[in-house]
Write a structure and sequence with these properties.
254 residues, alpha+beta, TATA-Binding Protein, six-stranded antiparallel beta sheet, three-stranded antiparallel beta sheet, 5 helices
Length: 254
C-alpha cells in the first residue's frame, strides 16, 4: 500500500513537470514555426518576413509611402506672352487675397509687388505656421504673434511666345515685447514662392503642375539581357526618362 502511494505520487509529479515543460512551446500550424510562449523569450523575430517594419518586427510606419515633392524651378519658364502673364499674376494675387502695391510695382517692366499679407495671427498658432514659411533658428526663443509675407513677381520675356517668371517672398515675423511690436525679416523656406508659382501655373495652363513622385519612382532603374550568344549581347537599360537598347558584338577567336 505504501509502495502504491509512492508510485502514484511519482506519476503525478512526472505528469505535472511534463505539462509545465511543454506549456511555453507549441507549433504554429499556419507558418510551421515553433512558437515560444514561456517567460524565457528572446527579442521578437519575424522569421523570413523581413520586408516590413523595422528590423523584421512586422511594424510598418509607412516606409516608402511618403511622396517626395519636387520643387518647381524658380524662375519658371512659361509659354505665354508677357502681357498675358502679367494679367494672370494680378488675378492670382486677387484670388489669394493679396493687394497689389501700385507704388512699388512696375508693370511696364514686368515687376509686380504685393502689399504685406498677414497669413497667421495669434501667439498659440503663429510659431508652427511661421516655421513653414521661414527658416528660424531653433535657439531663437522669441514669442512670435504674427507672420506675414510680401510677394514680388518678375516676368522676363524670352521671345514673343515665352517668358521666365520668378517669384520671391519677403517673410517677416512679429514679436510683441515690452518695447512694443517689432517686425523681423526672416529667411524664406521657399514655401510661399512655391504656392504662388503653382497657383500661377494652374491659372495659365488650366492644370496643376505635377511635382509629386514616390521615392521608388526616383530610383527606378533596371537592366535586362535579352540575348547572350557567342557573337552578340542584346540588353535593355531603362530609367524613368529613357530606354536604351544595346547590341554589342563580342570579339571571337578561331
Amino acid at each position: 500500500m505504501k509502495g502504491s502511494r509512492h508510485f502514484f505520487t511519482f506519476v503525478v509529479v512526472l505528469a505535472t513537470a511534463t505539462f509545465a515543460l511543454g506549456q511555453g512551446k507549441g507549433v504554429d500550424t499556419q507558418n510551421q514555426r515553433i512558437s515560444d510562449g514561456s517567460a524565457n523569450k528572446a527579442p521578437a523575430n519575424n522569421g523570413t518576413k523581413q520586408d516590413t517594419g523595422t528590423s523584421g518586427s512586422g511594424i510598418n510606419f509607412g516606409k516608402d509611402k511618403t511622396h517626395v515633392v519636387a520643387m518647381l524651378p524658380n524662375p519658371y519658364r512659361m509659354t505665354a506672352r508677357r502681357d498675358v502673364l502679367i494679367k494672370a499674376v494680378t488675378d492670382v494675387m486677387r484670388d489669394r487675397k493679396l493687394i497689389l502695391d501700385e507704388a512699388s510695382s512696375k508693370a511696364a517692366e514686368g515687376i509686380l509687388v504685393s502689399q504685406p499679407y498677414t497669413f497667421i495671427k495669434g501667439a498659440v498658432v503663429t510659431q508652427s505656421e511661421l516655421y513653414r514659411y521661414a527658416s528660424i533658428v531653433s535657439a531663437d526663443s522669441r514669442s512670435w504673434t504674427r507672420g506675414r509675407y510680401t510677394i514680388t513677381v518678375e516676368v522676363q520675356p524670352i521671345d514673343g511666345t515665352s517668358a521666365n517668371v520668378s517669384v520671391n517672398a519677403k517673410v517677416e515675423g512679429r514679436t510683441d515685447g515690452p518695447t512694443g511690436a517689432e517686425w523681423i525679416t526672416l529667411p524664406s523656406t521657399g514655401m510661399a514662392e512655391q504656392e504662388f508659382l503653382s497657383a500661377l501655373i494652374e491659372n495659365v495652363t488650366g492644370a496643376a503642375p505635377s511635382t509629386s513622385r514616390t521615392k521608388s519612382d526616383l530610383n527606378f532603374k533596371f537592366s535586362v539581357v535579352l540575348a547572350n550568344t557567342a557573337t552578340k549581347v542584346v540588353s535593355v537599360d531603362a530609367t524613368p526618362n529613357s530606354v536604351v537598347i544595346n547590341a554589342n558584338p563580342k570579339s571571337t577567336r578561331n
